[in-house]
Write a structure and sequence with these properties.
Blueprint: H1 3-10, E1 11-12, E2 19-21, H2 27-32, E3 34-35, E4 53-57, E5 87-91, E6 95-96, E7 102-103, E8 107-108, E9 114-115, E10 118-120, H3 128-142, E11 149-152, E12 167-168, H4 172-184, E13 187-188, E14 195-196, H5 208-227, H6 280-286, E15 301-302, H7 316-323, H8 341-346, H9 381-400, E16 443-445, H10 451-471, H11 479-482
Keywords: Copper, Glycoprotein, Melanin biosynthesis, Membrane, Metal-binding, Monooxygenase, Oxidoreductase, Signal, Transmembrane, Transmembrane helix
Main location: membrane
GO molecular function: identical protein binding; metal ion binding; tyrosinase activity
Length: about 500
């Protein structure tokens, strides 16, 4: 059985950050090859006058990549971000962000000196109010244009080396859909249909788990900024031993439509969502990037899979077997890696019949037109699923306690060496920096807390709920405001 391929096929979806700071997507910034925007607090680049950071030359590693991608100078993602920028902000202390305006993960407050640990919880254990809030925030993000980021709709060459910027607005949610497409797309070698398929800067190699960890942290951060709810965390879906998609209800991620089982129920807010970047084969045939336009409704058809390939969702025993693999990565550190925790978790390692009879597939699968995973982030289940994948990753890190130096330094597929900046994130982050415990990044999982901490966590949540009730009338992001995006029978309509 193939663990994550199980998830891929049971959550079949048909055609369903780069993450460029808006301030760096101008002709001037591209020609200067500099992304060092001013911090609003003092007007200086990177908040330098306030000691938040400074503008500096980007340094990239010259250590060799693996043989899977035999080209150089053809893809904008190579040696990220040098094709676009050779100077960016480097923040100091607890500051973070493309202009050092934000706090590092796990830190809060005006001066980023308040250390707090957030807790990600099982979505099925959330209260009704928490579920409503989650769906409301997701829908708000889908319908709010990002103020900070735009997405590239052309290659650097098509932009005439920066003279003709090609960027588009996208919603807060869709920026992250585009990020996931961009990092995993085929390399465009020039001309229609001329692509290299054996390349992916976030999958099928060591950076799979660190990259998605950073992705979720950025997504969580953007939702907090959008809503003003600093206590928000992404819940996880523990799909072990589940008999079906138990988050596919109208209260959560949407039931299936009675008229068309591949569509979502009209009773779910997600039934009105449109997907983007879902036609990878078409983009390859035309030799272009996704242009971030809407491409049809969100589709999902859980359970409608080939049971000769996979029978069911993963079991607890199968996950535990995977956690028992002591080597993070092995061999060529790609899809062929043998007895590798990462490769087994991701879904490529074949095992003997005495062990796990298949592999784990890392992402929710769509139809073949989605090419398995590039457009999977269109579905909000993607976030819940990856939060649980990250939880499994966290369990492995705590069990074996590897040091960052144990992450592969060289000869991994392009984009996956330890010193490589993760594509396409700005601010810059290296793969090895997320080969550490979640506790060092300011978050925990409820199922990993010991009994005393779980009790203390419930007390903290109770206090947060009381405080939220006090603030609800003054916050523009309360449920009354959000109700225009989501059709709930709330008290707002009766006020």
């Amino acid at each position: 059985m193939r663990l994550f391929v199980v998830i891929s096929l049971m959550l079949r979806l048909r055609p369903s950050q780069g993450q460029f700071p808006r301030l760096c997507a101008t002709r001037e910034a591209l020609l200067r090859k500099e992304c060092c925007p001013p911090w609003d607090g003092d007007g200086s680049a990177c908040g330098a006058s306030s000691g938040r950071g400074f503008c500096r030359d980007v340094e990239v590693s010259d250590l060799p990549d693996g043989p899977q991608y035999p080209f150089s100078g053809l893809d904008d993602r190579e040696r990220w971000p040098l094709v676009f920028y050779n100077r960016t902000c480097e923040c100091v202390g607890n500051f973070m962000g493309f202009n050092c305006a934000d706090c590092k993960f796990g830190y809060f407050g005006l001066n980023c000196n308040e250390r707090r640990e957030s807790v990600r919880r099982n979505i099925l254990h959330l209260s009704r109010a928490q579920k409503i809030r989650l769906v409301s925030y997701l829908n708000l993000a889908k319908h709010t244009v990002s103020q900070d980021y735009v997405v590239a709709t052309g290659t650097y060459r098509e932009m005439q080396n920066g003279s003709n910027p090609m960027f588009a607005d996208a919603s807060v949610y869709d920026v992250f859909v585009w990020i996931h497409y961009y990092v995993s797309r085929n390399a465009l070698l020039g001309g229609p249909g001329n692509v290299w398929t054996d390349v992916d800067f976030a999958h099928w190699a060591p950076a799979f788990l660190p990259w998605h960890r950073l992705y979720l942290l950025h997504w969580e951060h953007e939702i907090r900024k959008l809503t003003g709810d600093m206590s928000f965390t992404i819940p996880y879906w523990d799909w072990r031993d589940a008999r079906g998609c138990d988050v596919c209800t109208d209260e959560l991620m949407g039931d299936r439509s009675p008229q068309d089982p591949s569509l979502l129920s009209p009773g779910s807010v997600f039934s009105s969502w449109k997907v983007l970047c879902s036609q990878a084969e078409d983009y390859n045939n035309r030799g272009v990037l996704c242009d971030a336009r809407e491409e049809g409704p969100l589709r999902r058809n859980p359970g409608n899979h080939n049971r000769n390939v996979v029978e069911r969702l993963p079991t607890t025993a199968e996950v535990e077997f995977t956690l028992g693999l002591t080597n993070y990565d092995t061999g060529a550190m790609d899809r062929t890696a043998n007895m590798s925790f990462r490769n087994t978790l991701e879904g490529q390692m074949k095992l003997t019949t005495k062990t796990l009879a298949g592999c784990l597939c890392c992402l929710l699968s769509f139809s073949l037109t989605c090419l398995l995973f590039r457009c999977s982030a269109n579905d909000p289940i993607f976030l819940l699923h990856h939060a649980f994948v990250d939880c499994i990753y966290e369990q492995w890190l705590r069990r074996y306690r590897p040091t960052p130096s144990q992450y592969p330094e060289s000869n991994a597929p392009i984009g996956h060496n330890s010193e490589y900046h993760m594509v396409p994130f700005l601010p810059l982050q290296r793969n090895r920096d997320y080969f550490i415990s979640s506790k060092d990044l300011g978050y925990e999982y409820s199922n990993l807390l010991d009994a005393s901490k779980q009790l203390n966590s419930r007390v903290i949540i109770s206090k947060q709920r009381k405080q939220r009730k006090k603030n609800i009338k003054t916050s523009i992001f309360n449920h009354c405001y959000l109700s225009k995006y989501i059709d709930f029978n709330s008290k707002c309509s009766r006020r």
